[in-house]
Amino acid sequence: MRSSGFVVFIFWLLLQGESFLASGDREIYLPQELSIEDQCSEYCFSVVKLFFDHFIRSKVASDANGDLKNKIYLLETQLKNKDEEIKLKNQQIADKDEQIKREQFEAKINSSEAEIIKLNATIEKNELKSSRIIDLETQIKEYQLQLNNKTEDIKAFTVRIKLLETETNKSRDELISTKEEIEKCHAKIKDQEVEIKHGQDQLAIKEGLLKAFESTVREKESQFKNLTSETELLRGKYEASSCLPFVNSTNVHSIRLFDTDPFIVHCCSNVSGSGWTLIQRRVNANENFNRSWTDYKMGFGDLRENFFLGLEKIHRMTLLQPHELYIQLQDVNGSTRYARYDDFKIGSEEEAYELISLGKYSGTAGDSLTKFQLNMKFSTLDRDNDANVKRNCAKMFGGGWWFSACGRSHLNGNYYKDGTCEVRDGIIWATWKDYDFTISLTFSQMMIRPKTL
Ligand SMILES: *[C@@H]1O[C@H](CO)[C@@H](O)[C@H](O)[C@H]1NC(C)=O
Ligand SMILES: *[C@@H]1O[C@H](CO)[C@@H](O)[C@H](O)[C@H]1NC(C)=O
Ligand SMILES: *[C@@H]1O[C@H](CO)[C@@H](O)[C@H](O)[C@H]1NC(C)=O
Ligand SMILES: *[C@@H]1O[C@H](CO)[C@@H](O)[C@H](O)[C@H]1NC(C)=O
Ligand SMILES: *[C@@H]1O[C@H](CO)[C@@H](O)[C@H](O)[C@H]1NC(C)=O
Ligand SMILES: *[C@@H]1O[C@H](CO)[C@@H](O)[C@H](O)[C@H]1NC(C)=O
Ligand SMILES: *[C@@H]1O[C@H](CO)[C@@H](O)[C@H](O)[C@H]1NC(C)=O
Ligand SMILES: *[C@@H]1O[C@H](CO)[C@@H](O)[C@H](O)[C@H]1NC(C)=O
Ligand SMILES: *[C@@H]1O[C@H](CO)[C@@H](O)[C@H](O)[C@H]1NC(C)=O
Asked: Is residue 55 part of a domain?
């Protein structure tokens, strides 16, 4: 090893030769204050020392020789310079080492730093992460809060919804109940309509029934009248031969004479006592009195209005027993008068129903019969029995009567509502109206009654 180091040194010396030799003219001087170790860096020391020691020994040997001495001195100086240089170089090497070391360290530090940075970055990352986690957690918390709030809200909404539902249900229930009530009302109205209809039908039925009933009543009335008539007929058959038994009655009754069938008469008890039988009546112009002999014989007209009972009946009635005659009269002004005869009788058809008897007159109308009509036969338009040789009084003045040469009375003349007529053709009772033959009476009734002794 020593030899290889030496060879290196020689090599190095050859390279540095010039400067090493240039320092030779100075005294070889070995600095005492610096140890060899100090003069040489530890690096070169071990290498150079051997050589150096050898060199010193060689110097000493060659001192004798001045040239050599100078040369050595030069060499020594050069060596010294070289030492310096070595020292410098060593220093430089050390510096370099130092620098290398420092750079290494720095690199280490740099790498450490990088690592730290890396780590810090990691840490930071982690921190970031954790902060993010925290953030997230916070957010989650907030979200939870919000969620809670939402849950609360939802709860509140649920409650509200429930409330609304309840209200809706209530409203719906009310609506339903209202609807039901309306339906009930409709049903009721319908029922009532039906009832009304029913009532109307019932009413119609009732009306029908009433009408039927009324007609039945009318029929019954008619039947009753018929029955009454029949009863009267029967009663007349066995009891009545005049109106006398029908005391105080002014109505129709049936009488029967000994030799006739029962017939109906109109009794009058409200004019001059009870029991009069109407034989003639004039109240209006509804009946025509200008009729034939047969009509006057059999009678005609309506017993309750205008009629003539019939000469045959009157004859038979007056034949049996003495009768009174009562004549009631009224003029157009409403005044009434009467004429009464106490023994009225007419003959048979063979006698032309002659007015046989009148009896004694009494009354207010005057006697318009006795003087000209007594003992006269009955005349009609078709049976001229009067005393007028030239004319038929009945035909001239209309209606049948006991005409003479016509006479002072004619109660079967034409009816004039206004109470005036052509001469003699009206309802005449001349003694009342001072023989004014143009005054026609508007009411007359002739009635007879058996004389009670
Ligand atoms: C260390 O880092 C510094 C600054 O970043 C840089 O100037 C230097 O050259 C680095 N050293 C090494 C050995 O990488
Ligand atoms: C690590 O990072 C934090 C935050 O960025 C910074 O304050 C700190 O100085 C860094 N440390 C190093 C050694 O780079
Ligand atoms: C939750 O609700 C309360 C009251 O309504 C409100 O003050 C609060 O800000 C809400 N919070 C959130 C996170 O929405
Ligand atoms: C509302 O009515 C419906 C149907 O009848 C029923 O299902 C529901 O429970 C009712 N709600 C309330 C709050 O009464
Ligand atoms: C009543 O008598 C008349 C005449 O006699 C007759 O036409 C009528 O049918 C009778 N009425 C009744 C209901 O018997
Ligand atoms: C008839 O009428 C008279 C007078 O009004 C009366 O006194 C008499 O009692 C009545 N007779 C009958 C049977 O009704
Ligand atoms: C008598 O009775 C009849 C029928 O009831 C009536 O029309 C007449 O006016 C009455 N006469 C008198 C004088 O009362
Ligand atoms: C009815 O009365 C009027 C006026 O008082 C009179 O002019 C007329 O002659 C009267 N008629 C009869 C029939 O008495
Ligand atoms: C009565 O009747 C006959 C026959 O119809 C007629 O010629 C005569 O003129 C009538 N007399 C009166 C007064 O109306």
From this structure: no
Task: Evaluate whether residue 78 is within a structural domain.
Answer: yes
> Considering the domain boundaries, does residue 375 fall inside one?
yes
Q: Is residue 272 part of a domain?
A: yes
Output the CA–CA distances (angstroms, integers) from residue 348 to 277, 313, 382, 424, 428, in the order listed: 19, 10, 18, 27, 25
Ligand 2 and 124: CB distance under 6 A: yes
User: Does one domain contain both 228 and 262?
Assistant: no
pLDDT (tens digit per residue) in 255-288? 888 778 889 999 999 999 999 999 999 999 999 9
Report field, pTM of the whole predicted structure over 0.70: no
Distance CA 181, CA 425 (A): 85
Q: Which residues contact 269 (CB under 8 A, 6 or more apart)?
A: 243, 246, 247, 248, 249, 250, 275, 276
Element (H, E) at 257: none
CATH code for the domain in which residue 375 is found: 3.90.215.10
| 277 in the same domain as 200 | no
- Mark whether 305 and 436 lie in a shared domain: yes
Q: Pick the closest to residue 83 from 150, 12, 154, 145 (CA basis).
A: 12
> Are 451 and 321 a contacting pair, CB within 8 Å?
yes
Tell me the best of 143, 145, 150, 154 to mutate to test the pocket of ligand 3, counting ligand atoms within 8 Å of each CB and taking the most. 145
Backbone angles phi, psi at 49, to 5 degrees: -55, -45
Nearest CA to ligand 7 atom 1: 270
318-364 tens-digit pLDDT: 998 999 999 999 999 999 999 999 999 999 999 999 999 999 999 99
User: How far apart are alpha carbons 402 and 353 in whole angstroms?
Assistant: 9
In eight-state DSSP terms, residue 440 is -
Judgement on whether residues 234 and 256 belong to the same structural domain of the protein:
no
8 Å CB contact between 336 and 330: yes
Q: Which ligand is nearest to the CA of 115?
A: 2
Domain count, the chain: 2
Residue 18, pLDDT score: 45
Does any ligand 9 atom lie closer than 6 A to the CB of residue 339? Answer: no
Q: Is 207 in the same domain as 267?
A: no
The Å distance, Cα 234 to ligand 7 centre, comes to 26
Provide the 3-class DSSP secondary structure of residue 96: helix
Q: Domain check: are 119 and 218 in the same one?
A: yes
Domain that holds residue 207: 71-238
